[in-house]
Amino acid sequence: MPVDPHLLALFTMTTLVAMLTPGPDMLFVLGCGIKGGPRAGLFATAGVAVSEAVHVALAAVGLAALFEAAPTAFTVVRVVGAAYLIYLGVQMIRHRGEQTPDVDASGGGMTARKAFLNGLFTNLINPKMVTFTIAFLPQFISPELGQVWLQFAILGAILIALEFVVDGTVGVLAGRIGGWLRRRRSAKRRIDVATGGIFIGLGVRLAVD
């Protein structure tokens, strides 16, 4: 198997928890679904997923070449990435619930094409997404197994599949989820704290590993 089974299971679990946390991508898809219906929500998800595929491809090409040319670079990237995950976890706990804006349910409509393009470009040019991809994915790569690019491809495919499942569901059920988020601020805060704790624990574990 080209990917370490233990790391693959850990990656899938961590990615799923991160996807379930209401963040910018989920709120964007939610807003598109409310304004344009389920079709717009699904196309918004597709736009976000395509941009993530680009991020993963760039990370795979660049980091795979770097790890092959300088094996010690893997340790550096992994430690820096683990530190960044800890930082993200601390930020989520400190600012829990503060960055979830109200979703406007009275928007003037959103076409599927516009939803897709907005999802594609807003995510594609977001420097935080590039940083997260470069910091996150190498934590689950095992250079000793070889074919680093293939490991990146497998992890990227899982990431995109979970994106479609989670955010696609949000887009389809946008009306109900939007109302729930507006009513349950305390639930959002608890989710942020739990996810922040997982990121911190994962960062510490992988830094020490």
From TrEMBL:
Q: Where does the UniProt annotation locate this protein?
A: Cell membrane
Q: Does the keyword Transmembrane apply?
A: yes
Q: Which domain of life is it from?
A: Bacteria
- Classify the main location: membrane
Provide the alphabetized UniProt keywords.
Cell membrane, Membrane, Transmembrane, Transmembrane helix
List the membrane topology term(s).
Multi-pass membrane protein
- Please give the Pfam families that the UniProt record associates with this protein: LysE (PF01810)
Residues in the signal sequence? none
Q: Which residues cross the membrane?
A: 6-30, 42-67, 73-90, 115-137, 149-170
Residues forming coiled coils:
none
Protein name, entry field:
LysE family translocator
This protein's species is Allokutzneria multivorans
